[in-house]
Specification:
about 100 residues; Nuclear Transport Factor 2, Chain: A; 1 helix; elongated; four-stranded antiparallel sheet
Length: about 100
């Protein structure tokens, strides 16, 4: 049998504000942290229209459906925004099940 680990937590806590260097201001500022969310898909975009056209009529999918997805989690991207110059920076995230922003 296998032993169940009790200290394992699938979530990772990140503070809502991080003191970080801003390359635009050239100073250290307390930057606000938020999670990146994908925008709304535009149905009138050329790629979207082309894909819909290819799916029309007889036949199956344009691309074969994956039987088993390769990854079980997504990489979470963080957005850091400087309060002085209002510049936003994307920070490449790490692969996690869940990321939580907590007040520090």
């Amino acid at each position: 049998m296998f032993k169940l680990r009790t200290k394992f937590s699938p979530t990772m806590n990140i503070p809502k504000e991080i003191n970080r260097y801003c390359p635009k201001c050239k100073t250290h500022t307390l930057q606000k942290v938020s999670l990146y969310k994908a925008g709304k898909r535009r149905g009138s975009a050329i790629g979207e229209r082309r894909h819909e056209e290819d799916k029309k009529g007889y036949g199956g999918q344009k691309f074969p459906k994956l039987a088993k997805p390769a990854k079980t989690t997504k990489k979470q991207t963080l957005i850091l925004s400087c309060p002085q110059c209002k510049k936003k920076f994307n920070k490449k995230g790490i692969r996690l099940r869940k990321l939580e922003l907590v007040a520090a």
